[in-house]
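TICKET #2291
ISSUE: user wants both folds in one file
ATTACHMENT 1:
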Amino acid sequence: MLTTLVVIFIIGYLAIALEHPLRVDKTASALLLGMLMWIIYAMGAESVVPKISAESFNHFLESHPMLQGKSLHRQALEYVLNVDIVEQLGDIMQTLLFLIGAMTIVEMIDVHGGFRVITDHINTRDKKRLLWIISFVTFFMSAILDNLTTTIVMLMLLRKLISQQDERWLYAGMIIIAANSGGAWSPIGDVTTIMLWVSGNISAPALLSYVLVPSLVSMLVPLFIVSRQLTGDLPPRDTVIEKNSHITGRQRATMFYLGVGGLIFVPIFKSFTHLPPFVGMLFVLGALWVFTEIFYNSQMLEQAKELRLPKVISRVDMPSILFFLGILMAVAVLQCTGILTEIAGFLDEKIHNVYIIGLVLGVLSAIVDNVPLVAGVMGMYPVADPAATGYAANFVIDGTFWELMSYCAGVGGSILIIGSAAGVIVMGIEKINFGWYLKKFSWVAFLGYLSGAAVYGLEKLIF
């Protein structure tokens, strides 16, 4: 059965990676993959559960005496239904609820035009200076917002500023790198760091202390190289008719600062209350919802219905949420059946170096989706006991491996245009082809990736 699960996972993964040639949405493939793997696991549970989860299984049978006379298959099936699925789904839902809350807040800011607070202040016509400004704005925005939203906002800005496609592609390529690098050092900046943070593998102070500078270097190296290809000034900017003109500048700014402030508040909330991050995110969403309801009740705007949260939440990218659900459920089966543990043991035995393992996994994230990759790694390497020493000390909370994984999984996705959500959205909106990015940006992104990793190694040696 284990071989069957691995084969099905690989086939499902290929279907996700080949979404465009197959013309089958990756969400559909992920959901089918996740549910099919649980069905197969449940059908053959008696051959796995007593071996992989012997102690937990025995304790489950002792606490459920009514199962004593049942067949081994029925006992193992009940264990899967009442323990494995419940525990795995509980962990997964924490991540999904966090993402739903964050994406709704971002959509709320966007529908009110709040991001113009940033874009309206970018007025330079110098090409090099504009590239540096856009890259840094993207870097820090993606640390607060999700990479996908940040990339879309910056691409929309580019279309207002640059009409020539070849030049715009250079800026778009840097947006991919800046978005991925910026999301790697923030607990709420990228789905992978969210997963590691929500699960307690790493804390916000550790990301800021050890991953921020390497992430910045991974952007600065490509930025310096790409900026040398730009000279001169852009033509005068065209006047654009304002969208949502019924919303005043003050209202846009209010929504922007409330939304972004709420997102920044979530890590602080977790530090003080020690509650799961999704509680803080949904608390912020509830507070913002109450604020907008009171505001629109007093203003009585004709367009208020379109701006209220029940309408805004319909704009949230639910296929992405379902994709995460499907792929995380599939990875959960690999974890429950002990497959990931065996892979981890193989890597430890053959390589036994967290830096090499981290760098290899980072490069791999440019080929495969980093969400299931990180989910798999989390299943392969459980968080070690705080008192662990030697090699195991790399896997404690805020250990070297988890810091390196945050960096590598996020930044490594920039090496290929299909390696990250930011790259895929640029590919879709700007129609950049795989070969152009491979020729112009892959080597630059890889150089930045290695440079940042080297800086991280120096940090660990010095501090």
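ATTACHMENT 2:
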Amino acid sequence: MDNSVYQNPLITRYASKTMSENFSDKKRFALWRKLWIALAESEMELGLNISQSQIDEMKMYADDINFEVAEKYEREVRHDVMAHVHAFGDQAKSAMPIIHLGATSCFVDCNSELIIINDALEIIKNKLVNVMDKLRSFALKYKDMPTLGFTHLQPAQLTTVGKRATLWLQDLTMDYGNLVNLQSALKLRGVKGTTGTQASFMELFEGDENKVKELEKRVVDKLGYKGVYGVTGQTYPRKFDYNVLCVLSQIAQSAYKFSNDIRILQNMKEIEEPFEKSQIGSSAMAYKRNPMRSERMGSLARFVISLPVNCAMTAGTQWFERTLDDSANRRIVNAQAFLALDGILNIYMNVSENLVVYDKVIAKHISAELPFMATENIMMECVKAGGNRQELHERIRVLSMQAGKNVKENGKENNLIELIKADKMFAPVHGKLDEILDASKFTGRAPSQTVEFIENEVDPILKSNSAVLGQKGDVKI
């Protein structure tokens, strides 16, 4: 690493090698050559004056990219595609006259970009289902463990630790559906020519439209795709980039929500993200256990969430058949969105697989709030024994105010149950309070909801992706 120049932290710190390689020049330019070979081979098959020996020579150098030669040409001609045409031609000399025949730069640029995006989406999908698999295990393990629910970040009715995890899972199932729909809609630009009219190919095939249509079909088939845009300008529709970034943003939103929940739970000392033996939480406060993984997830998520508007502006400013002000922007935005989300999912896998649950702290927090939540149950039991509902309501209101004052003004424990035990009006329930205050009776259908949701909505997704499960979250730093 050259430490004298800026290094992109998405590469050096966050993204996986797999995702970094997917957006590498090596892959991009190898795809360009694959496209040129598919084009020339299809043109030969349809009767143009191209020989098999020329095709064979191109295939010989398909992955042997002479980067330095291409860089030298680009400094001279100021055109990246033509630089690589010349560099490829320097190697496959007999094929030089027919490389890029009839094509525009976007034949290689747009089609390769769409293939790279599709491959990147597959990487993201594989990591997404692995996060889901880890949260599934966590949810089932803790489906019965009561915990305080929170609305407005204030204590509310009880839920369970596992049921809360299904909320994170549900976000991801929605994201998965959107990602799969996006993949199913992905098409290549195909073989369209300079402004999308296929005029150059009509010239090559002497006005034979059927051969031009067959040329496009054959090229796309050779690349392993079926879908192709029926019409384009010079590029594929830049609205597709916006659709991609929206899906990536949605996954980032889900991760952001999870990371914030974990940060709050860690503050409450109920659940913690993994903290390694030699990890330092603070340079000054040696005792600290900062949720740095979750914080990093949130930090990267903000970046991804911010990017769709950039793509929206690019899509909206493509004048007529295209402008080139998209090019430099897209080199940055598309790749970095995927690299950042890849980093987020690496952390998400790591955290979700290694969450630490402190059941005694959770129980302590429940005990501090449950007496207030149980007042309705206590009152109803007394009514069953012959008590007056209105009188009981007023009395329990007064005792609740006393207990609340004891907590807030005196800094003491919630003593509502002690006050109830000392009050003769509530004598009918004095022997039943432990049963009434059983936290598991306040979680409703949370345990069964957890099981049903996983069986009905999560397991089918995991089953269809079983071959890629088992990944680990690699956190570099």
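RESOLUTION: both attachments delivered.
EXTRA DETAIL ON ATTACHMENT 2: Strands lie at 146-151, 154-160, 271-272, 356-357.
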